[in-house]
Amino acid sequence: MASCQEFEVTVHTSPGPTCGTYNHLSLNLIGSQGETPPISVNKDDHHLLPGSVCPVLVRASEPLGGLVLIRLHLEARTGYPNLDWHCSRVEVREVADGRAEEGGRGGTEPEGPEVQVFLCDRWLRTADGDVELRSGKLCLLKDETEEKLKQQRLKQLQHQQKLFRWRRFVDGAPSCLDVNSVTELGPNLSYTHKSPAPNLHYLRGFDGRAEAWKSFTELETFFTHSGHQNNIARFVHAHWAEDWYFGHQCLNGCNPLLLRQTRHLPPNLSVTSDMLRPFLPEGSSLEQELQKGNLYLLDYEVLDGIPANVVNGKQTYLSAPLCLLHLNQQGQLLPIAIQLQQTPGPQNPVFLPSDAGCDWLLAKIWVHSSDFHCHQLASHYLRTHMMGELICVATLRQLPEFHPLHQLLMPHVRSSLQINLKARASLLAAGGVFDKACGCGLPALPVLLSRASHRIRYRSLCVPDDLMDRGLDKLPHSSYAQDALRLWNTLHRFVVSWVDLYYRGDEDVQHDSELQHWIDDINTHGFTHDSGFPPSFQTRAEVSKFVTMIIFSSSALHAAVNFSQLDFSLWMPNCPAAMLRPPPQVKGAVTEDDIVSFLPDVNSTCRVLTMLALLSQPATNFVPLCRYNEAIFRDDAHRRLVEAVQAELKAITDDITERNSQLELPYPYLSPDCIENSVAI
After folding, report:
1. CA atoms of 381 and 257, how far apart (whole Å)
2. How far apart are CA 592 and CA 575, in angstroms?
3. How confident is the model at residue 97 (pLDDT cuts 50, 70, 90)?
4. Which letter does DSSP use for residue 312 in this model?
5. Strands (E), 280-425
6. C-alpha dihedral over 337, 342, 347, 350, to 10 degrees?
7. Least confident of 100-104, 184-188, 284-288
């Protein structure tokens, strides 16, 4: 009879103060030829305490073959609370000659190369049933050498696809996860956002004022208190009415994604060369400036015909402006024509810088108000939040945990599930801020999100393509463009190196069925078939670009469009969330006092600013870009890549800090030390 195999097993509980549990833990060793019966781990004087090590000796009466998996099973202990348990890892060493050394149960950790490490690094619950851990390095399906490990990958995905189902939030927009509460996410997909309370002292006490601001003087008094600690907001307040600063915000404000160069004027913009000649260089013409690439366009056609909200019992109004800007010889981008609706006609005049000051200022305010809706719902919620959730759900459903892209992507997209669930239940729901204070209310939300989704193109999500397509790649004063491009290139080098670790050639990409199912799931539940998303992956370069897009969208882009929004909105006329009078149909009919009557009511102003203050507050426990807490990133090959990208990001941080110190108006939002690794707020 063959002698039995004996194994020293040590079970490591993670060190966090709540990582322990009262529950019973049992384990099985699973080999290529057989498995051991379950054996209790925390019996007698062994407890699953935070940071503890529980040793156990396992005897196999039948040959196991090579050890490939460990099965863990938690059961509640009668009379004690059923607490989740956070397991760090399980280590196993086969004992030579079938004899355990003295101290095998005395807590001595296994040593030497014969130790197999089965990483867990996650919460386990009794509701999970059997949980199987594997050892070794990340790999593609084709590189699995054990049939049981191939089967385990398939079984895990089948389980995940039952657990994580798609739900349609808005017809025509990317799908979301089919859950109704954070509790359903479980401990591994939820998190605690720790944030210092923002200073809302001067925004409180206005709830009862469902009325218009009395004058700009009253708005000034309000801003003096609410904006006095914000340097960027004070700069906005000082310069918001100046044309050069209007153009500057198109490049470096909270929504730098809409401006684009144009060499052909839209046919529905009613301008002529004679009309615009006074605002162009002497001796030049509209046609020449178009050919030189000096004209830029903001087009809010996505808002055309969208139903406007009722706020405080009052009808609000939306417009869909066209705004033409000129890049002058000093490098300033100046607005030179604004048409407030898409359809030209005698009741839709084109406003010009030469018009009466109040007419021109009101036209620019209308553009800013339209930009608020496109920024909040398209640039922010759709392109970062919904994108992150789309990728997260597809990753959970199609890439097993040992797939290298699962491990790389999840730290960047995991948090999107919880924050989006909360947004759908509060900000975007009945009684939320969009319902009660914004021009785009509940009837408009699905229309705008669906339209914006149909207009998304894959190239617009990839920074080098987007900046080139929009003609912003060479503009001298676009800090967003400069910083975004440098960040993209750094992230891209990191991703290329990661992909090259596991895909030895393009044929590995083509034959990775898990990868192909992943992109198919994304396309099925994401954007339209003509969006330009890759229908499948053929090359390592395509995979690297796509993964870079995901990481950038979930980190840097979110930082640019989220953490900037309060700065540009505290002076409310710069970014009104609703307009209470319709767009003017004639010129020369408004005064300064009239302008105030277009703006949101006092209480809705404060409600929006309170929301933006909460959303713009960085967490005290935020994880900076490319800082990974997961154990898998401590593997030597991964660690070297992470250290390299972190060094590059540190150099970018230093350069941005130096640049900003020389600027009257800094652009801090894409400094890597301020960028969170994922969409967590």
Report:
1. 13
2. 17
3. low
4. T
5. 295-299, 310-311, 314-315, 322-327, 333-339, 350-351
6. 10
7. 100-104
